[in-house]
Amino acid sequence: MARADKDEVLESDRVEGLAHPRETFELIGQEEVLRIAAGAIRSGRPPQALLISGPPGSGKATLAYRIARYLLKYGASDLGPADLSVPASDPVSLQIVAGAHPGLLVLRRGLHPDTRKPMTVLSVNEIRKLSSFFGLTSGAGGFRVAIIDTADDMNDNAANALLKALEEPPARAVLMLLSNAPGRLLPTIRSRCQTLRVRPLPESLLAQELAIRMPQLSAEDQTAVIQLSAGALGQALMLAAGEGLLIAKEAQRLIDDAPHPDLLALLALADRIGRLKDGLETLGEDLVLNLGARIVARARQGAPGLNPWVEAWEKLRHAFGRSTALHLEPRQTILSAAAVLSDAARSGTL
Question: Which fold has domain 6-197?
Answer without folding.
Answer: Rossmann fold (3.40.50)
